[in-house]
Specification:
four-stranded mixed sheet, globular, alpha+beta, 5 helices, 28% strand
């Protein structure tokens, strides 16, 4: 993203869910001049299949928790999800970040 001219994001920025008090992190965070927050999430599949990460939980439960986490997060930030395939396609990745208003450096 930096090579494409986008502003450097904050890494592993923390958010507190006002309903539960639970702290979660987003992979990337940009703060726009108008106060809008754009959270970037690099989606991998390992967290759904690696037993050391799933801790014995079913994939459906992990996905349900992720949906709830994201619904709380969207109350305070725009959320742009992308995959490694998106990152490898520089043109597509740039269009995606632009479409979510990620600032250029």
């Amino acid at each position: 993203m930096i090579e494409l001219g986008f502003a450097a994001p904050e890494l592993q920025a923390e958010f507190v869910d006002p309903l539960s008090g639970q702290v979660s992190r987003v992979d990337f965070l940009w703060r726009l001049p108008d106060g809008t927050l754009v959270a970037g999430e690099l989606d991998g599949r390992q967290k759904y299949v690696d037993p050391t990460m799933t801790r014995g939980r079913a994939t459906v439960d992990l996905l349900a928790d992720e949906r709830l986490r994201e619904s709380r997060l969207t109350r305070v930030a725009r959320v742009v999800r992308f995959s490694f395939a998106d990152v490898c396609d520089r043109g597509r990745f740039a269009r995606l970040l632009d479409s979510f208003g990620v600032p250029r450096a």
